[in-house]
Amino acid sequence: MTAVESGTRRLGEFTFECGESIDDLQVAYESYGDFEATEEGSNAVLVCHALTGSQNVASAGLAETAGQARAWWNDIVGPGKAIDTTEYYVVCANVPGSCYGSSGPPAENPETGEPWGTDFPPVTVGDWTRAQRRLLDDLGVGRLHAVVGGSAGGMNVLDWAVQYPDDVARIVPVAAAARLDAQCLALDAIARRAITTDDAWQGGDYYGDERPTEGLALARQIGHVMYLSKTSMGEKFGRRAAGRDAVRSFPADRAAAYFPYREVESYLDYQAEKFVDRFDPNTYLYLTRAMDDYDLSEGYEGDADALAAFEGETLLMSFTGDWHFTVEQSESLADACRTAGVPVAHHVVESDHGHDAFLVEPEKVGPPLRDFLADGLDGRAIHDTVSEDDEDEGEADFAPVHNSLFSG
Amino acid sequence: MTAVESGTRRLGEFTFECGESIDDLQVAYESYGDFEATEEGSNAVLVCHALTGSQNVASAGLAETAGQARAWWNDIVGPGKAIDTTEYYVVCANVPGSCYGSSGPPAENPETGEPWGTDFPPVTVGDWTRAQRRLLDDLGVGRLHAVVGGSAGGMNVLDWAVQYPDDVARIVPVAAAARLDAQCLALDAIARRAITTDDAWQGGDYYGDERPTEGLALARQIGHVMYLSKTSMGEKFGRRAAGRDAVRSFPADRAAAYFPYREVESYLDYQAEKFVDRFDPNTYLYLTRAMDDYDLSEGYEGDADALAAFEGETLLMSFTGDWHFTVEQSESLADACRTAGVPVAHHVVESDHGHDAFLVEPEKVGPPLRDFLADGLDGRAIHDTVSEDDEDEGEADFAPVHNSLFSG
Fold first, then answer.
1. Domain coordinates of chain A in residue numbers?
2. Keywords of this protein's UniProt record, alphabetized (chains A, B) (predicted)?
3. Residue B62 — pLDDT band, cuts 50, 70, 90?
4. CB-based contact (8 Å) between A179 and chain B?
């Protein structure tokens, strides 16, 4: 048995990047395994969750959450798994602005006894990182063995290397990017508009009343399509009609009955209904804004300059079917590391599973991650886009998608 | 001066594919040029409009429409243009179910004197084709020189070759497909959900009251992202903040003010506001359903079987940056033509402009189209994906996007 701890720490006054502060930042977290000091600093591994994730990274956790917030990386984190909790002390913290116990819009504002709602200060990825640093201080953890995370969590990982370059030996941004592109910014903006134009949103002051679930459902569905790939959707659903039992959970016009209710619709509708039960609409606004706002190069001359102070090793992982955080974006990060002199490998995973691959392909994500945590860039299962032969030329050996549907 | 006619024809009882009928189908249309009988039948060219288009294909038309519904292919259709109205008699009809004068949800139901709303029968692409045939009969046009159209209009073109294979000499489906894929079906379903979950929709009975403009705006924005490409959005907007004058036209939370209102958001918001002024929400439901439902092979053993009776020539045009109607989908159509013995060329246009390319790259679309109308597949500006050398093997010479973000 590995030790599991689940709780909330009160960390005192916290000033957000925007300049606003709150009197007592609360951070909900879980930890797995036993903390040990090592030669490199410690055996501590911080895992950063994605947009709608929680601190409950593995099933042993105690958080009362559901869906992708419950044991969301259980195939990767646990005893004997890639991030082995018998070996590492694994910490995952719910980011400020989220809705799983940390300070955020649905949490109680101590001054009023009511939920903060949209009075909560705007939150950035930088705030996530500083809150995690404060939590780790409170837990007695100094230097980390590694910081690992996917998607928006991967941005959080990158920010660790920028804000606390001396505090971490190895970073693993998975399915990440230095910044979102215009297409993703657009889709996130549409998702937020769906929430704020839901009449039930009421300027964000819906707590104790009907929640803007229709807007949040739309936002989630737009996001869900971003997490899948054209190929995976075609293979999983095609154009098939859903079973007879499947019925829409929202209004439709009379003419709709003449046409099939398709499996792909039914799936997205079902997933959205589950999501709105577990997630807070204001939180969706806050966290997508943080993700959209993130730019590795902000305050620096470029991505390489931002990473220059980091003296650890970097493993980047990306997925060929991912159009949210693309292979090209990770390769661009790898180039920035190379320019900055940061030892790096960019491990490209062949997968049709889109952005979701980092969650649903543990057999491909696990081995390089395990070996990197153990042996750094010498890890056996790690492949790099730059082979030794052509390293001089800086040529990547993944097939660049210059003729892809998007970049062609 | 070429003759321009703009009007509405009452075509009598019309039974829709669903089995329901209405007493007096009205079809709004425009025609440009003079009709002439020719050896092949006539100089008539039917142009099929896309989802939100209208009969007002060229600026000479008289329809009081706006945005993409006004003179939507003015760069292609007109005196001296690719579809030369001094040479061809060009007809464009507003499809049944639409909102530019033909029978559809916002049109008056003669029995009640009120708008049909969602009492209007469900509409299919097949209904569009049969209504166009009826209109052309009424106009005295028998056999057509060509049927040309893009996007959903391209599906309409394909349906002409299936339903009336002897009535048309040449077809040009532009940026079309035999059917939509699961990803596009999903996004269309989310768009419809945005409309029907807008409280103002009221089951479709909103005429004379507040319209569900918020839902329609979201639907349009989702569609708009589908029409652009990742590359074009990156180049056009990047992550830039909008100018100081740009303000959101819908509610936002307090925290939003800390973050930039980006150009890409501002653009999509502005376009959506313009769109909701010119388009009917119920029509958006009806026409996306028709597009989603379309399947070339329905009632046949496959796409080739469906096309087998067509004895004319086919020019397919597709665009490398299009992820809504992909190059692969057009190539699959070309294969079906080859199998069916239908003379075909598949002309692939290099463009970063996404699906919109068929509207915004007239200098690339015009020449092959002009030459095809004049000389059929011998047209000089036409390139085919199958070069003469490897025709035996049926190998396409466009770079297949197997390693693309989507299909990789």
1. 4-180+295-393, 184-289
2. Acyltransferase, Amino-acid biosynthesis, Cytoplasm, Methionine biosynthesis, Transferase
3. low
4. yes
Residues A28/A100, Cβ–Cβ less than 8 Å: yes
Chain B contact for A286 (CB, 8 A cutoff): yes
B394, pLDDT greater than 50: no
Q: Could you please state the CATH topology (level 3) that the domain comprising A4-180+295-393 is classified under.
A: Rossmann fold (3.40.50)
* Residue B91 amino acid letter: V
- Residue A313, strand partner residues: A170
Q: Distance from B284 to chain A by nearest Cα, in Å?
A: 12
Q: How many CB atoms lie within 10 A of CB B110?
A: 12
CA distance A51 to A282: 13
Please report residues of B whose CB lies closer than 8 A to that of A225: 183, 186-187, 190
List, in sequence order, every residue forming a beta bridge with A7; answer none if it has no partner: A29
Residue A197's pLDDT is what?
97
CATH number of A184-289: 1.10.1740.110
- What does the alpha-carbon distance between residue B188 and residue B213 come to, in Å, rounded to a whole number? 17
State both tokens at B343: 């003379």
Check the annotation: does B199 bind a ligand: no
Q: How many CB pairs under 8 A join A and B?
A: 241
ipTM of the complex as predicted: 0.94
Question: How far is B62 from B64, CA to CA, in rounded Å?
Answer: 6
- A231 touches B at CB < 8 Å: yes
In angstroms, rounded to a whole number, what is the distance separating the alpha carbons of residues A288 and B252?
14
Side-chain half-sphere of A90: how many Cα atoms within 13 Å?
Answer: 31
Cβ-Cβ contacts under 8 Å for B223 (sequence gap 6 or more): B51, B187, B191
CB contact under 8 A, A255 and B295: no
Spatial separation of the C-alpha atoms in residues A54 and A30, rounded to whole Å = 9
Q: Do domains B4-180+295-393 and B184-289 have the same CATH topology?
A: no
Q: What is the dihedral of CA A59, A64, A67, A73, to 10 degrees?
A: -30
Contact B320 A408 (CB under 8 A): yes
Task: Evaluate whether A152 touches A174 at the Cβ level (below 8 Å).
Answer: no
Backbone angles phi, psi at A175, to 5 degrees: 45, 50
